[in-house]
Amino acid sequence: MPLALYDTWSRTLRPFTPLRPDYVGLYGCGPTVYDHAHIGNLRTYVFEDVLRRALVQNGYTVRHVVNITDVGHLVSDADDGEDKMEKGSRRTGESAWAIAERYTAAFQHDWRALNLLEPTIWCRATDHIAEQIDFIAELERNGYTYRTADGIYFDTARQDDYGYLARLDITGLQAGKRVAVGDKRRATDFALWKFSPPGSTRQMEWESPWGVGFPGWHIECSAMSAKYLGPWFDIHCGGEDHIAVHHSNEIAQTQARHGTRLANFWLHGHFLMLDAGKMAKSGGDFVRLQTLIERGVDPLAYRYLCLGAHYRSSLRFNMEALDAAQAALDRLRKVYRQWPEGGAPDAEAVARFNAEVDQDLNLPRALAVLWDVVRSDLPAATRRATLDCFDRVLGLRLADWREDVVTIPAGIALLATQRDGARAAKNWREADRLREQLRVEGWRVEDSAEGQVLRPLD
Ligand code: AMP
Ligand code: ZN
Fold first, then answer.
1. In chain numbering, where does the motif 'HIGH' region fall (predicted)?
2. What is the pTM assigned to this prediction?
3. Ligand 1 binding pocket mutation candidate from 41, 42, 73, 270 (most atoms within 8 A of CB)
């Protein structure tokens, strides 16, 4: 059975065939780097990573492009309000440029901690201003733009099928919304280029044929994806929130310039939810990967948690679910490590696993196949080799895992030996004194059937 993916454009599960033999162009909308990414954002990138691994598993060479939005994403989708970067700059007292640098590095750190494959190309919006200006100039030549007091806008009235991706009810939208921004003509029109406010200088601004200012958010993805993948490529991804505005606008621009809807397949990951509602950067109520790490959670346990829910259903996050994921991953690592190397994978199990992955990335069912193999009576070496195959898609780094080896300094080891001696001599007071001294030095003693165990205090 070939790989089938759910395409938001057609709202159907479609067999995947690449536009060029054996090669897949894949674009994922990257983060807006005015703050840390939260684990909701990261869920979307885990889904895209699994997609990429599934494509590789199917024999394709993948060119994967991820952008970094470091300018132009406004606080409101309606083209008014502040640039998120300038807002971040006010919040932290650093320059918008410094913030972009810092949060890009933090994002890429999280990316690697989750064992996401490195994109073929990372591209920053501010490194592609010329491409965005060229794109807008071409839209202007084709008659798709108009000028207002605060910028150059895309005229969505020029396209009968504007918003098809989201099945937008344009008439309802126009009736329901007052257009308050500058003199933008329609609620669905959007900024291509915004002017710097008169009499003030922005931290990020550039000359353009229309005046000093900065690009609107949507144009960066149309310009950079066309540059690196061409104006008609295989798969474009992002979170479900992008369907109605960002991706609809990327399509509108590319349709107007190149006559394509940008990508043959549009895939969207559903949201990570908190009990209180959705997790959003602007909401303030968000959890970072680093916060989980500080609580002793392995980032790959979060990855495991994501794999346990289908990407097209929302995932409710809480610490109990995360603990369960950590326990499952620990168990998997321990059994895997006991099995010898040198076996060959079980072809039937691999075929079952791949069939689940190929069915629109059904990772929950693929994981069920994995646990069947763990519990099976296949020879241990076969089980190990089979899990090695699975892990190429799961990305849990089973083969790399080592139990933490704690190095105990000589002075601490000496105290522990003395305590052991005191216990053997039933000198409980001395044993307790030594326990306390170890605690002051930052070590906890646990007495078990196998003798005492030393652990560093958190
Ligand atoms: P942003 O940095 O806000 O531009 O978002 C980066 C990516 O995270 C986008 O693909 C969003 O669609 C996605 N995203 C935002 N919030 C969530 C969430 N709660 N769960 C899953 N994905 C999200
Ligand atoms: Zn985008």
1. 31-41
2. 0.88
3. 41
